[in-house]
Amino acid sequence: MQIGRVGRFFAAMSTMAIIVAACGGSSATTAPTTKPATTAPASNQPATAAATTAPTSAAPATATAAAPPTSYDSPLPLPSGVPTSIGAGEGQVTVLNWPGYVENGSSDPTVDWVTPFQDATGCQVTYQNFGTSDEAFSLFSTNPDKYDVISASGDASLRLVRAGYVQPVNVDLIDSYADIYSTLKDRPYNTVDGLHYGVPHGRGSNLLMWRTDTVTPAPTSWAQMFAADSGYKVSVYDAPIYIADAAVVLMSTQPSLGITNPYALDQTQFDAAVALLQQERPNITDFWVDYTKQMDVFRNGDANVGTTWQIITNLLQGEKPPVPVDVIKPVEGATGWSDTWMINSKTRHINCAYKLVNWLTSPAVNIQIAEWFGEAPGNSKACDLASDPSFCDTFHAADNDPFWDNVWYWQTPEAQCVDGRTNATCMDFGQWVDAWQQIKG
Amino acid sequence: MTAGSVDRGERPRRSARRSLAAALDRHPRLRLLLLLGLPLVALGVIYFGSLFVLFLNAFWSRDAFTGLVVREFTLANFQKLTSPLFITVVLRTLTMAAAVTITCAVVAFPIAYFMARVASPRLRGALVVAVLMPLWASYLIKAYSWRLILAQDGVLNWVLQPLGLEGPGYGEVGLWLVFVYLWLPYMVLPIYAGLERIPNSLLEASADLGGRGWRTFRHVILPLAFPAVVAGSIFTFSLTMGDYIAPGLVAGGKQFIGNLILSNFGVPDLPLAAAQSLVPLAIMVLYLIVARRLGAFEAL
Q1: Where are the beta strands (DSSP E) in A225-275?
Q2: Which DSSP helix (H) or strand (E) runs through B128?
Q3: Cβ of B20: how many Cβ atoms within 10 Å?
Q4: A35 touches chain B (CB under 8 A)
Q5: Which residues of A touch B70 (CB under 8 A)?
Q6: What is the DSSP track for A124-143?
Q7: Which of A111, A165, B108, B165 sits at 20 to 30 Å (Cα–Cα) from A349?
């Protein structure tokens, strides 16, 4: 009797557990499948001509009276709808950003430039980090009116402009715009048809990191890392754009291929880059997107050489006990990024968005972000405010520093070669995506 | 005002309630509609509706540069499903799902048998709690823990080092271990329930007819418990097939169906992701048809 009752109780319990399990299971299996389907219809804007039509259709201008634009930088008059002055804040602003660009003290209590902004403007900042430009673009395009401001690298920014997701910025309203390094302004990935689609923020180079205790001698070139017989355990960035890193290697190891820009690869050049990655593939133990994941593998010895960002090295060296790692920009040069703060064409918080972009690109904040993330600031007046006087020299902030001569900022590959060739057809980004999946296997 | 304030003297209100009750009593279909309306909407619109949108998306394409969905009918996404990469990934996923399912069945059966047939009631209760306990912890925590366990400088290698051995590290073997750990309770519980349902009289009859332990197990217990094993396998198989988080953490870059779908969500190529999603869906439908034939649904 007693046993029977207990048995029934547990039978009921286990049935319940199974039901719970079944629900959990089905949601686990269907979540990735249904999400694209339900969110897809949101992105129904025609891609063509969107760049010119979207900004006018969106961007509620400020309530304040419109003054005639006194533009010294914009060759063309701004489309209607672009604000001509910054009014009172709407109370909130949402940002989609690279990790480390927007900090409110939750990563490190001493790293906080959001709270002073909130206190000064009354705009409450919500932010979300992303790990790759593709993730950023996907999040932005599937939630077209969620994010007011985005930090876009060159391989996302032009896509955002073409799709009509971001609006031209009236740079007269950006206090620091004149102080932004001229080499970062008017680039094809942030300025289209004479319209500035954002404010350049800073730049950096992807770097080669290694464990100093297990890798001797220290590597000096990417070619060593890509070699089939390197004996390294390699950690690489998990995004199709990483194929460009292989192309950078080929630019110095196989000059006969004639690669002049790692984002403009014709079929032969592309095949060579893919082959180089396939040769490296057996040594790759880790693909990282989330930078804490790369920190894991370096800390635990699952990788001892890899492509990294300065911030990751800084964090690993700052741990207790420190992880013995060092970092260089290899001899071949490197891929890198030049980021731009952009504003959503459908934003409902345009004034807070402008205030925030102003805040983030101001010298005092720009240098904080640059020092925290480990990159060169975009504002030429920022360096004077660095807490470490040698910081800007270390990161080659100066406008025409030769350091950047062989750094290739991320850019979206297109069929019409981005290096200007007209006698060749280049692999478009879709083909890069397919190839990247093939490489991962 | 409210129903609570109605006292026995208020005839009209009572009659209103009564007439409603009477109407419901006279119209069984209305009763049924009120009872099942909400669940039917949930199942029909939300569940099948989203599946339908998924299906529809698979026939669209996307703009290569901006990733926006282009709503023109095309079969290109299905042609891409025949690519060598996708076939390799599907086979890898199916092999993993089969290996995990078989391992779970082999490991779970003795546990479930002991719980259902050998253990004292007190011990049985403790064991059920022990099996259920891991389900109370977040899946993510468990997956990340395994990432640390399997790491080069992780616990597993630390334990194995004195024996001169080395753990599997990140890769397919490591992932197989993680999946077996994660899904084992989903196999133990159905088998336990199935074994417990076997009447003692059948075992006694087998013994009376001269059946010894192994013979009874082979010809009485196993056939009766088999539907329960199949029922458990539905969970282990489908959960393994759909997962992308554990492979992302411990597979060392090896891709499974879920990872491919996820990466197409990130690109974004939602129509291709939709087409790819239909593959595991189709496989599971086939699996469930076979499982039903084997009596798994009666065992649940």
Answers
A1: 234-237
A2: helix B121-136
A3: 10
A4: yes
A5: 47
A6: EEEEEE-SSHHHHHHHHHHS
A7: A111
> Helices (H) and strands (E) in chain B — how many of each?
16, 2
Helices (H), A40-100: 50-57
Query: pTM for this one?
Result: 0.77
pLDDT 10s per residue in chain A (441 long)? 344 444 444 444 444 444 444 443 333 333 333 333 333 333 333 333 333 333 333 344 443 434 444 444 445 567 777 888 899 989 999 999 999 899 998 888 889 999 999 999 999 999 999 988 988 998 998 888 899 999 999 989 988 998 889 999 999 999 999 999 999 998 888 999 889 999 999 999 999 999 999 998 999 999 999 999 989 999 999 999 999 999 999 999 999 999 999 999 999 999 999 999 999 999 999 899 888 889 999 999 999 999 999 889 988 998 889 999 999 999 999 999 999 999 999 999 999 999 999 999 999 999 999 999 889 999 999 999 999 888 998 889 998 899 999 999 999 898 889 888 889 999 988 889 889 989 998
Count the alpha carbons within 13 Å of A313 in the hemisphere toward its beta carbon. 22
DSSP conformation class of A112: B
Bridge partners of A199?
A: A341
Q: Give the distance from residue B272's alpha carbon to the nearest chain A alpha carbon, in angstroms.
A: 10
Say how many CB pairs under 8 Å bridge A and B. 207
Size of chain A in residues: 441
Q: Which helix (DSSP H) or strand (DSSP E) does residue A93 occupy?
A: strand A92-97
Chain A 245-304, residues with CB within 8 Å of chain B CB atoms:
284-287, 296-297, 299-302
Give CA–CA dist B4/B17, Å, rounded. Answer: 13
Q: Which amino acid is at B53?
A: V
Q: How far is CA A149 from CA A28, A162, A167, A368, in A?
A: 31, 17, 10, 19
SS3 state at B300? coil
The owner of tokens 């800073």 is A202
Alpha carbons within 13 angstroms on the beta-carbon side of residue B189 total: 29
CB contacts under 8 A, A 305-344 vs B, are: none
